[in-house]
Amino acid sequence: MAKLALLLDRRWSGGVSTHSIGLLLSALALKKLIEERYGKAEVDLYFIAQEGDFSKFYKGDFEQLYEKYLEGDIKEIINYVTKNIYKKPSNKISLDRLVDELSRDDIDFKIFGNLGSFLFNSLGEKQNLDKILNKGNFVISAHSEFAGDLLTDIYEAIVLNPYASKYVSIETRKKIEDLFKRRLEKGYTDEYVAKEVIMILNDLLYGDDIDSLIFNVKKGFLEDEVKKYTNLMTKLKEGYTIFPTDILYKQTNNLLKSLNNFGLNLFIRNPVVMHEPMYMVTLEKVYSEEVNIYKESYKEIYKDTDKVWLLYSGRISPERGSNELLKLYEDLIKEGKKVGLIIISDNIDEDSEFYKKISELADKYKGVEVHLYGKGFGNSLHEYPLYYIGFLKSLGELKNTIYINPTYLESYGLATLEALIFGNLITMYRDVSGLRELKERGYLNYILSFKNYQELKDKIIKVIEDIKNGKYDSYINKDVIEKLKEEVDPEKIAEKYAEIIYRHLESQSTEEETIINKNEEVTAVT
Amino acid sequence: MALDDVVKNAFAQLSTDNSLGQQVYNAIISSLNDTLLTTAKQIEMQLDPRVNRALKYTIEGFNIYSTKDNMNPSQLYSDMINIYKQNIFGNSTNNTFSNILLLSTLYIRALKKLGNPDPITGKKEYSTRQERENAQNIISITAELLPKLWVQYYNSIGKNVTEQEIMANLDKFASALYGAYSGVTGSIESYILSKTPNISLLESSTRLISTLNETFISAIEASTYSIYSKLQIPEAVALILGKLGQIGLYNNTFDEIYRKIGSYIGQGLNLQYNQPVVPQPVQQQVQNQHMQPKKLGPSSPLQGINLNTPQPKVVKSP
Q1: What ipTM goes with this model?
Q2: Is A363 close to B275, i.e. CB distance below 8 A?
Q3: A229 at the B interface (CB within 8 A)?
C-alpha cells in the first residue's frame, strides 16, 4: 500500500491552471500504475482556491474521481475542477488542517502542482514548510521564472507607474529599463539580469533614499514573497523539482546564485526536466467523435474563404507581442495580402483598446476581417475545451492557417504546442527561452522562428505564398507531432511521476534495510 | 538705443496685443489641462487598493473591526467624512476660508520639509533633496497666494488689512490654521470613542482618515507641482491655483477621493496586480448547456449534428 498526497493550485489563470487539470489526470493514471506495483494506492487530493484576497483550501474526493476515470468520464473530472465542484462548503479545510495532513508521517510521497502554491498565502511560512517539506518525499512543478516576475513587478512599480517615474532617480529607472530590455532581447533572464534584479530589489527594499520610499507601495508585498520564495528554495535541496524546460531550470539556478551572494546556500538537488501533461490529449482520445462534430462546424466558417488566416491565442499584452501582431496584420493588409486574423483571448472585449485598434483598421483599410473569440464576447472556446480542439482541427484540415506566437517571454509554450498537436498548424514563434528550447529539441520547425519584427514579416510573406502554392505540408512534420502528442499525454507523464516515486520509495527501503542490517550487525557484535 | 530698450519696446508692444494674450493663455491652459489630467490619473492609481497595498490593508482593517463591533462600516465612514468636511470645508458658504486653511497646511508642510519644526509637536523631519526642491516651490507659490486670499477674506467680513501686514506674520497665520487642520483627526477620534470602547476600531479609523487626508493633501501638492512644472512662475501658478480654489477644485477633489475609498468600504477587495485570479463561478445551467449541446433541426446543413459552437465576433471592413 502506498499513500500519496496531491495539491493543486487553482488560483491562477493561464498555463498553471491548465497544468493543474493535466496533473490531476496524470495522478489518476498514476494511482493505477502504483496499484499494479504496490497493490493499493490511496491519494489525498487538496486544492488551493482564491476567494477575495485570501487563499482557501479544499479537500477533494479523489476516489470518486478515480471511479469516473475508470468509467472514462473525463468530462466530469474536468468539470469537477473547472466548474468548482470541489468547492463544496463541506470540503473546505483550514490552513492548519492542510498543514497537519500534509505533514503526516504515513504519506509516502507528495505531489505539488505548482511551486507558486507556497507563495501569496501562509502556506509558505517557514514553520509550515518545515513541517510539509521535511523528508525529501515530494515533487514540485515549477512553471514561471521568479527573477523575471520580480523584474516585471519592479518595472511596473518604478518605470511604468507615472507617479513613481516622476520622482525616482533617472539612474535607477534607466538601470531597470536596461535590465528589462536586456531580458527581452536575450529572450530569457541571464545570470547578470538575475543578479542585478536581486541587488536593485535589495536596495529598494532596505534603502532609505527616495527611490525606496516611492517603492514603498510594493514593498511589503514583494518583501514577503521574496522571503517565502527563499524559504521554499532552501527546501529544494531535497525532493524533486520538475521544470518543463531546461531554460527555466537554468534561469531559476541563476536566481539562486544571485541569492547566494547574500550568504545563502541554495541549490536544487534533483531537477527533472519533462513536459507538462496536456489534458486535451486525453479529451481528444475519449471524445473524438464529438470533436469531429465541432470540427465540421468550424470548417463551415473557414472553408470558403480565399484568405490565409493568422491565428493568435493568449493574453493581449505588450510582453506577449500582441501589438506587433496587429502591426503585422496592418502591414500585410496595406500590402494587399488577402489575410484574416483570428484572436482567441479572454482578456479582450468591446471596450478594450485592442478592440478599438482593430475597429480602426477595419475602418481604414479594405479587406480587413478579424474574428474574435473570448469570454469578453461570450464566445470563449476554452470554456468547453472540445470546441477548441474541434476548432484547431478544422483549421488544420483546411490548411489555410498560420499560428503565431510573438511573445517575448515563454517558459514552456503550452498553447503553441496545442496548436501544433491538434491543428497540425504552421507554427511561427519568437526565438525566446522556452520556445527556443522546443525548437532545439526538434518539436518546433527551425525555419519558422523569428527574432524580430522584420524577420517575422519576411517569413510570414513567404509562408503565405507557399500556402497559396500548395506547399502547406512542407512545414509540417507529422512524425514529430505524433511523438510530441504521446509525450505530453497525461498517462505518459504519469509514468514519469511513477519512476520518480519508485526511485524515492525504493531508495528509502534500501536505506531502511541498510539501517536494519547495521543494527543487526551491531547486535551480533555485542 | 540700447539693447534692453529694444527688448523693452518689443515687449511693450506684445503686452498690448490682446489676440496674442488670448493665444498664449489658451496654450497654457491646454497644456495645464493635460498635465493635471495625468496627475489625476496618477492619484487615482494610488487610490486603487489593488495597487496601493497599504490602503488595501487599512480598508480591510476598518471593514473587519467595524463589522466585528456590529457597526455598519459604510455608515461609520460617512459619519467620519461629515466631521472631516465640516471641519475643513465648513459650511461652504465661504470658500475662501477653506482654501486658506488648505493652502496654509501646504505652506507649513513645505516649511517642515525645509527643516523647520512642526508648529504643534516641535518635531523635525528628514527630507530628500527632491522633496526640499518641491517644498521650496510650494512655499513660493503659497506665499504669493495666501496674503491675497487673507485680504479677500477679511474684506468680505468687513475688516481692513493689507497684504504686507499678512505677509509680515504669514508663518503665524499659517501655523494657527495648520493646527486647526491637524485637529480634525482628533475630532474624529473622539467621535469614534463616543460610539465604542474598541481601541482596534479607533486605531483603524484613525489610520483610514489619516490615509484619506494624506492622499488629499498630496493630491493638491501634486497638482501644484504639475502646474509649476509647466509654468515656472510662482506668481502665475498662484493666480491659477487661486482661481481653481474659487471654483471648487479642492472640495471636488476631496469628494472624489473619499467616494473612491468609500466604494471599497464594507465590501471585499479585488486582487493585487500579480496575484492569482478569482475563479468565476459558472452557473450549472450554462455548464449543462455546454455538456449536452442541443441538436439542430433538419434544416441544418450538417443534418442534425449539434452546432451550438461559439461563433466568432467578426470585425470587417465595410
Answers
A1: 0.86
A2: no
A3: no
